[in-house]
Design a protein that fits this description.
Blueprint: H1 8-26, E1 29-30, H2 31-38, H3 42-55, E2 58-63, E3 73-77, E4 83-89, E5 94-100, E6 105-111, H4 120-132, E7 136-143, E8 146-148, E9 151-154, H5 166-174, E10 178-182, H6 183-194, E11 202-206, E12 213-218, E13 221-222, H7 244-249, H8 262-278, E14 283-287, H9 293-303, E15 314-318, H10 320-338
Parallel strand pairs: 4-7, 7-10, 11-14, 14-15
Antiparallel strand pairs: 1-3, 2-3, 4-5, 5-6, 8-9, 11-12, 12-13
Helix pairs in contact: 2-3, 6-10, 8-9
Length: 342
């Protein structure tokens, strides 16, 4: 372990993170179980557990049955010790959820969009929630645009947000770790986590309120690309003079898309076939308020005219808002586990 971290402080932080993650995942554990699972010496585990118990982060939850010697003490993580906040921002709405470290929802709510005209309303919302929940330790925010290391790099309907370092701005104000993620990246992560799908390739398509987008997962990892532009399917060229966005929206920009005619279905079918040929996903997931079974069957049939049917992914519908929020929750939980109290 000493080769992986450059200072005692970093080593201490890493050990706490690993104990925290193990207890959250296992529910409870003894010192011996943690030592064996994490490959950390028993005395070191004992030392860190004592400090975490003193801080109120973990609690004694009983003794194991005796096997002839002293009964081992069992410890659990206090689920209320850390809380997380997930917020997604769309054209017409802002939704948020407060949850504890084992994913239990403490509060959910919604309000009009904070994308425009006054973006400071987002910070006001966060400030109100922090005052109500002082144990908030991580924030995940989803936006309908491309994000690179917390900075919004492509969000064409909202030029006032282009280039804004949303993560840096919020962390500076609230001194709480923040992650900012593209809406569809969060959605595909949330879908896979909620369905307990591991090491699979998936695509999540949303025609959306701000133009189409996708989240791409390959072998269990969300693909963001070299410049965090992956999934911006609006630009995919499909016809001689039309991109996917132009074919789908039929010349209208940034409106709600309702698939209705054969040209739109052909455009989506071509995109499905393109993903099948390039990433060969297990499934393509659609927002359940944008498609129905009959429409998915039409898309699948048309897709099969472009690529062999046996290589086509399953076409599924899911609750996009639920998947989106669940993905943000996973991102916030990861931050929560990694955060140091020092």
């Amino acid at each position: 372990m000493t080769d992986l971290y450059t200072s005692p402080k970093e080593m201490k932080k890493a050990i706490v993170q690993r104990i925290r993650a193990a207890l959250i995942m296992l529910g409870s554990a003894t010192k011996a179980e943690l030592s064996q699972r994490l490959g950390i010496s028993f005395p070191t585990i004992s030392k860190f557990l004592a400090q975490m118990e003193s801080d109120g982060e973990i609690v004694y939850s009983g003794d194991d049955d005796s096997s002839g010697g002293r009964r081992a003490k069992r410890y659990s993580y206090d689920p209320e010790y850390r809380l997380g906040l997930g917020i997604f921002i769309e054209k017409t709405e802002t939704k948020y959820t407060i949850f504890n470290c084992i994913g239990e929802i403490k509060e959910e709510g919604s309000m009009p969009s904070v994308l425009e005209p006054e973006f400071h309303l987002l910070a006001d919302l966060i400030e109100t929630l922090i005052e109500k929940y002082p144990r908030l330790r991580s924030i995940a925010i989803g936006v309908p645009g491309a994000v690179n290391n917390g900075r919004i790099i492509f969000i064409p309907p909202y030029p006032q947000l282009q280039g804004r370092d949303l993560q840096g701005m919020l962390e500076s104000r609230f001194q709480i770790p923040v992650v900012v993620e593209n809406d569809m990246n969060a959605s595909v992560l949330g879908y896979a986590s909620n369905m307990e799908i591991e090491n699979e390739s998936l695509v999540y398509l949303y025609f959306g309120q701000n133009g189409p987008g996708s989240g791409i997962m390959i072998n269990g990892d969300v693909v963001r690309g070299s410049t965090s532009f992956s999934g911006e399917i609006s630009f995919v060229p499909q016809y001689d003079n039309r991109s996917f966005r132009q074919a789908l929206l039929q010349g209208e920009r940034f409106r709600r898309t309702i698939l209705s005619d054969d040209d739109q279905i052909d455009s989506v079918a071509r995109l499905v076939a393109t993903f099948a040929a390039i990433t060969n996903p297990r499934a393509v997931i659609f927002c359940d308020d944008e498609v129905d079974e009959a429409l998915l069957a039409r898309i699948a049939e048309r897709s099969a005219s472009y690529i062999p049917r046996e290589h086509l992914p399953a076409l599924l519908a899911s609750d996009w808002r639920q998947d989106y929020l669940y993905g943000l929750q996973q991102l916030a939980l990861n931050l929560m586990i990694a955060e140091s109290d020092s």
